[in-house]
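Lecture 7 notes: from sequence to structure.
We start with the chain below.
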Amino acid sequence: MKVYIIRHGQVPHNEKGIYDTIDEDLTELGIKQAEELKNKIKDIHFDIVIASPLLRTTHTARIITSSDVLITDDRLRERSCGTLSGQPLEATNREEYWNYYSTVSYGINENMDDFFKRVFHFLDELKTKKYQNVLIVAHSGVSKAFSAYFDGIQDGKFLNRGLKNCEMKIYDL
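Predicted structure tokens for the same chain:
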């Protein structure tokens, strides 16, 4: 099975460089990014499209694919930033925030082990399905968890292992 993971298009909090838990829609640039990606993947038939339930991912999914089969899965939500919502990204040491082995806690947020377990559970379940091509539309953090699942935890540093807006990576599951 080929699993194509795509990060949603740009949203206002990406543009502002802040943590946010608000369910935001795409910016004009985010819509343009998704439309450009649609042209790149137009010849791929996806058996199923699975997205995080947030507006930015479902909107991106509807732009980039004409698939009739779009389902959402809560396990594909972004890592919760908790009380960091609305704070600039500089409010944390980003390397530390995305370090699997870090013991630093920034307010009430989802620790990486729990977050990765949530995404790994989704992937373990997906393995039991008989799809050929699966499109996943999710978030940067989820793409980091995919990297951990397929490439291993390694040194535990995940800051630069996530996808950019409307970037895609393909894995064999």
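Points to note: The longest strand covers residues 2-7. The chain has a mean pLDDT of 95.
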